[in-house]
Give the backbone structure.
Amino acid sequence: MKVKVTSIKSIFSTLLVLTAFFTIVLYVSKNVGEKVEATDTDTEVTIQSSPPVFKSGEDVYEDTASDATTPWDEGQSGQTIKATSEDPNDDNYFLIVCSSASVTPEGGTGNAPSCGATQFCLSSSTTDETEATCTVNTSGYSSESYDWYAYVCDDVSGSQCSSSSQGTLSDGSESPFKVNHRPSFSAVNDGGSVDPGSNVTFTATASDSDSDGTSDTVKVVVCTNTTTAVVLGTPSTCTGGTLYCESSYGASDPSCQYTQPNPYRDISRTVRAFVFDSHEYGASTYQEDAFTPNNIDPVVSSVTVNGGSNVTLNDENTSGGITSVVLTATVTDNNSCNDIASVQGFLYRTGIGYASCTAQDNNNCYYQISCSVGGGNTCDSDNDASASYTCTASMRYHGDPTDGASLTDSTWYAETWKDTILANDNTGGSSHNLEVTTGVEVNSTTAFTVTTALAGPKISYGSMAAGADSGLVDNSDTNQITTMAVTGNVGLDAQLSGTLMTYSTYEIPIANQKHNFSSFTYSSGGTALSGTATEYEHNLAKTTVTASHVTGPTYWGILVPSVVGSGTYSGTNYINGLKGEAQSW
Amino acid sequence: MFYVMKIRNIISAIFVSVIFLSTQFFPIHAVYAQDNQASIGISPSGFRYNTFMPGMTYEQEFTIMGVDPSTQNSMFLTMDAGDINDWFTFVPSNEITIPQGEQTGTFTLRMTIPKGAEFKDHNVQFRVGFGKPENTSQVAIAVGVTVVLNFKISDEELRDWEVRLVSIADFYEGDDMVLTAKINNKGNVDVKPTKIKVDVEDLNGNIVKTVESSTVDEVPAYVMQEVEVKYDSKGIVPGDYFGNVTVYDGDNELYKDKVAFKVMISTKKKFMDTTFGKFVTSVPGIALLSVGGVAIILFLISRRKRKSEKK
């Protein structure tokens, strides 16, 4: 460390000495020179004003260069011609560009020059040997090519101008400058409605007459109608909107195709079309067109009835006599599931059929059952084509049974129950219906209610003497009537049986009771009761009117044995319902 | 504390009163407000099929209905089949209890036919009824239902089946397409479809894929059951489709139907499309995860080592 500090010190000292030495030397030499005094002599010379020239080594050029490939766009400002002047008098100068080789110094305002023919541009007064910029505004320039002549003129009274220059380079920046014009564009059309999933073709009525070099071509870019501008690219971008399609360049009437998605709502959509020429210069304005995809009928599929299982109907006394039978289907609409306006179900016996199920009949036709979205496939958005629907038919207890193997089992044993689902979309007249492929059976339900006048239910023969019988048993003997009401969907017969009537050790034989399905006189009519369940052809018909079930009475009579203890006898009579022959319903 | 208890008692009393009064004005058994009625029902009203082979076992479910829900009901099942009574069994038992508040109950009748059963027609029946009512005066009326069973024992083979419905469940792209068919075997021999073909149709009406399979489970005699068939769904991209299904019995097109289904973007693909998903499946992502995993393992090992050294 010590060695380093020592060497730094010695270097610094050396530098200090050298600086002092040279300072002294400079001071002395200057003062020695100045100490020589001169003698003043007046002289005079008049310098004449000379015209400026284009500065050697500096270019005269268009910025940006224009040629047949990259012309200037008509109507655009900002195209410039630049040059640099060299004035012997160091005067400021004007750069002026004319359409002919003719310029008049001081022909303009102040010292500014003017052109003999058309003045393309005039720069501001610019410091000598500083590049001047002359801005050309091509608005209204209808030709495609313009020869230009540039001059530099000094900004003094008695101004003079240089000789002309038509550019010093050969890269397109020299005269002439080329002007490109906007394509013409009057309309766009879509060629008529097509189905979702198909192509809609947008065609622009457009052309471009420019032909300098090669003929200009045109393309169309079709965007949503919120688009404010288009940025050409691969693909192009619609600012503020979305691109539908764009064409390639063509001689005229360019067209492009947009593949409509599927599903696609059948609503009017307005597109905004922009046309560009092959120099990417756009038409003066866009054109709009409204197109509407075709409406497509909905499609019903996946139709089911009761999940493919047979239907067991509740009797009238269970759940209000109603059985919920679920119908399901999927409805698909290529205009989106939101296009589906209503879905209805129809449930019917096949002997009636969908065509004849035109009004509600609780025996055989459940009509216009309202369906709603359900079953897992919901309608999520306009991009969703399908939804599943569920309809619940409230089948009544007396719906026609279709089970069995013969006409004895059921009038309709050879039929089934099917459903049809009808879907309407929101375009009037657009609908579809589909019937389930395989029907289901509605099972026979044997069911009934027995009603008596007495609570229990019970019947009573009242007070009778030994040896007496009931005599005439008719409707006035209300306590001796049991009424059987059909509460299922089949007609009924009855099995009747009974027990002894007993009191203490006394018995009244079972057979002393008699029964009949109509009023009877005990001594001459009726059928003796048995202790074994015995079938009788009650032939109660199947109920066909929901609020009015079929009923049938059974009249009961008794013979009291001649020798029997006095008292209140009791017993039990059994009434079993069973399905009657269908021919008797 | 005393006042809190008193208020609680008052509230309880009001609550009980309201419940009591409501049962008087709104009886639970609205259908059975009358004591002079008795009702009962059963479905179906017989055997669904009527030809059985010796050695077969056939089961059928029945539903009892229409009973008074205001009380618990005990239903007694009685077979009247003469010398073939022992063929029949009520499952779960020949006494069915329907709880208070309910109106329906189910049971299964199982018929087990001996292998040497004689070929003949049978007409048997069973009854469902309530127990004998308690009665000390007049004649009580007890109701029941009788189900008549007509069938024959035969060695005749009956081959008869149908497809009740088919469905194709929605699935994720890349997963198998699963078709479910509900087959109703109405015959006395086991059956299965020869093959099931599906023409997959897109919304534009184009058939994008056709698949078929003969790998289908058999359905036993007199049974209705669902069978599943799986298909390779390769090439079916996300979207809405129709499956045009054809079920064959031999060369016969037994059943045709149109069903709808959706193919959804796979969760794996959804994850892969996220920024994180793309990262973890890229080379740098895999490298980083691998290094990170190794580092964690080494850390845990060294930590364990230090712990054991301390001991």
